[in-house]
Each structure stands twice: as C-alpha cells, then as structure tokens.
Specification:
Blueprint lengths: L1 E3 L2 E3 L2 E5 L12 H17 L8 H5 L3 H10 L5 E4 L15 H10 L4 E3 L8 H15 L3 E4 L16 H13 L3 E5 L15 H9 L4 E5 L6 H8 L5 E4 L6 H4 L1 H14 L5 E2 L9 H10 L14 H16 L22 H8 L1
Parallel strand pairs: 3-4, 4-5, 6-7, 7-8, 8-9, 9-10
Antiparallel strand pairs: 1-2
Length: 347
C-alpha cells in the first residue's frame, strides 16, 4: 500500500516479469538485439537515480524481484505476464519455473499468467489445457509479433487463435493480455497492430482483452476500438515512464484514455524489470494534467486509485481491504466514457 498526505492506495502491478537474457541463454543475435532494445527504453525513459547497469538488467532473480516490487515498491499484488520468445532464447525469455515458484511461495502477493502460441496447432491446445490446470490460470500473455519458424507474427483474428480462445473459455481463462505496443527489435512493427483486437473482442465478448501498452504508438486506433468494445481494457506498461521524460505526452495519453474508455478499464504497470514501480507510483499520485491542457479534466484521487490497483484487483478477484475499496459504479456500454467530465472541464 502506498500512502501520501493521508491518502491510501492499493497497488496492483499488473504486468511484471522475471527474465533471463544473459549471453548463455541467448540462442542467436536476436536475443541480444531484443534485450538491448529493452535496455534502451530503460536508459532513455528513467530518472538517473533509477538506472541499472546493463549486466544487472540481463537477469534479476527472485530475491531482487521481491525486494524491488514489494519491499521497496509499495505493491500489494503483482501479476506475471511472461513472454516465451523461444526463437531468441534457449530456455525462453520469461522464466516460467522461477516465476511460478515465487507465486506458490507468495500466493497472496503474486498471480502467474502464462502464454500460448496458436501456431503450435493441436499440440498447443493440449498444452494450454495442461498449463491451465497446473498454473491455475486466470489469464495469458500473448505476443502476436513473436517469431515461430518462418512466421514473423500472427493475428488474434486468425482461425487457430479462435480455437485457442475457445479452449480459454473451456478451462476458465478469462483475461487475455496482448502486447500491442512499440516495436521491439527485431520484431516487426505491423505484427503489433491493434486492428485484430476489434474482431476478437466482438466474437469473444465474455473474455477480457487487456491491450498492454495501450497500443502505442497507435493510441488513437486503440481508443476508437476500446470505446465500442466494453471488454477491451488498457494496460499502462511502457506508457508510465513518459510521466518523467514527456509529462505533457503522458497527460495526453491518460487524458485520452479517461475520455474514451473511462477510469474503470485502465491498469497500472511498471513493466518490471523495464522499470521499478516505486518511482512510477510516486510520480503518478503526484501527477496532474497541466492547467493549459483544458480539453482534459483534472485526474481525481479516486480515478488514480482505480488505475493503480482497484481495476486489476476486480478483474482478478484480488482481495482489497475494506478501507481501500470504492463503491461500484455502472458505466456506459459504448461510446466515450469521459465525455461529460471533459465538457465540464472546458465549461
């Protein structure tokens, strides 16, 4: 829990990972390219006080993870969203066994999501069923730009993807987290396009589609889709650090999200280990829309509470202490959620 000036915030870090990008795990040059791109984001968007040496960035391990997230980071609960990237890393990028062991040791603090790739066909469907049982999965993290043999991406609207979503229904997986954000070298930009979210969300309206990185740099496309699909949510991973380097750009991002999809479908994330949560939480609680950006109303403390943790807690059934809860509120099915607030702000 984070406290500031007598105000309390329940924190859910909804997108974290334990990864291993050390040279001995890199399968080829692409493994180095991928982690180097991550480190460029870290180095260019972080305060100087938060920069890590490159060697530490390659692998953190569970002990440091727990310290950075919970001991130092104010977080009440965190959700693993691992990427496989088997074409680039011998044992995979996200460390399944280590992350799941931490989850088992800390069930009140951690939730483990896994991943699937529809290009694995029938065998992958059996694997998904087995993984759902073993990990007690509530969610999965999908990388539509991941390479697989000669394939350099897939779409949520592909026929095989639909087969996997049907199995998700069957085994009780309701939360589909999808990386739809900035290009990461050497992955292809177009494979991260958000357009396929629209069709999948329409056809599987009983599943939640959490678009990680809110589609950046395709924020407008994401907002137009999400405002018409009530089961589409936005994850702030990668968007958050712009609060430091480009605060007006961050104000635009959060202002547009609050206008189009509303405060109930936005989730905080530090995207650990790209960034640690402590400084992001402190900065967001203190952040306010600049007064001259009059098209956006001020962000309220209750909106910040929902974004920082209550929204993800609701999605995943994470217990929230009674003193930190907010009353349930209905939201419109379609159309801009924050239009009335925006009108009031400019009146």
């Amino acid at each position: 829990m984070y406290q500031k000036d007598g105000e309390k915030f329940f924190i859910v870090n909804a997108h974290v990972a334990l990864w291993d990008a050390r040279p001995e795990n890199q399968r080829n040059i692409h493994g180095k390219q991928f982690i180097d791109c991550f480190y460029d984001y870290h180095a260019n968007l972080s305060p100087a006080s938060e920069l890590w040496p490159y060697e530490e960035y390659l692998y953190q391990g569970g002990e440091r993870f727990m310290k950075d997230i919970f001991t130092d980071g104010y977080v009440d609960h965190a959700i693993f969203q691992p990427a496989r990237l088997g074409e680039f890393y011998k044992r995979g990028f996200g460390q399944t066994e280590e992350a799941f062991a931490l989850t088992q040791a800390n069930p009140g603090k951690l939730t483990y999501n896994h991943n699937f790739d529809p290009r694995n066909g029938e065998a992958g469907l059996d694997r998904l069923r087995a993984d759902a049982e073993r990990f007690n999965l509530q969610g999965v993290k999908l990388y539509t730009a991941e390479w697989h043999g000669d394939s350099r991406g897939w779409k949520l609207s592909d026929p095989w993807a639909y087969r996997y979503f049907e199995v998700c229904r069957e085994v009780g997986i309701r939360n589909i987290h999808v990386h739809k954000g900035p290009t990461i070298r050497p992955l292809d930009r177009d494979a991260f396009d958000v357009a396929d979210v629209d069709q999948a969300a329409t056809d599987f309206n009983d599943l939640n589609f959490v678009v990680e990185h809110v589609g950046l740099p395709r924020l407008e496309d994401f907002c137009w889709i999400a405002t018409q699909e009530p089961n589409v949510h936005g994850g702030l991973a990668v968007a958050m650090p712009f609060i430091h380097t480009r605060p007006r750009y961050f104000a635009q991002i959060i202002g547009e999200l609050l206008y189009w999809i509303g405060e109930d479908r936005i989730q905080f994330s530090s995207d650990y280990a790209l960034w640690t949560p402590r400084w992001l939480i402190e900065a967001f609680v203190d952040f306010q829309i600049p007064e001259d950006m009059t098209e956006y109303p001020p962000i309220t403390l209750d909106q910040k509470r929902k974004i920082l943790g209550l929204n993800a807690a609701k999605m995943y059934g994470i217990p929230v202490p009674e003193e930190l809860r907010l009353p349930e509120a209905d939201e419109t099915e379609t159309g801009p959620r924050g239009a009335e607030n925006a009108v009031l702000a400019t009146a």
